[in-house]
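INFO  loader      accepted 1 record
INFO  loader      residues=111
INFO  predictor   begin
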Amino acid sequence: MAQPSHEKMMPLEDYLQTVAFVAKSLADENRLRILLCVNNEKKSVSSIVEELNLSQPLVSHHLKELRQALLVKVERSGPFVYYEIADARILTILEALKALATDLLAARTTF
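INFO  predictor   done
INFO  writer      dumping tokens
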């Protein structure tokens, strides 16, 4: 399995674990929606709940997962907690996955 050139010194098992660490967190539609929601500005849980029309416990659960995967940053301001995307490269990855999925689905000949 070919690794990106800057990763050649990393053992294969470490490489796979590193990629899986992020990929697992991107494998849920609600987490993707939350990442897109907090892309442009810091938002509170209640703002995310309202914007995405999801329950507060569900949003809190997914924010915990995204936080553990280091995909969102947390800022506390008094009693409020705000979330924002941790790294803009996440959006580049999402766009690349969308383009790949679109191409694969367009070329699909069997269902």
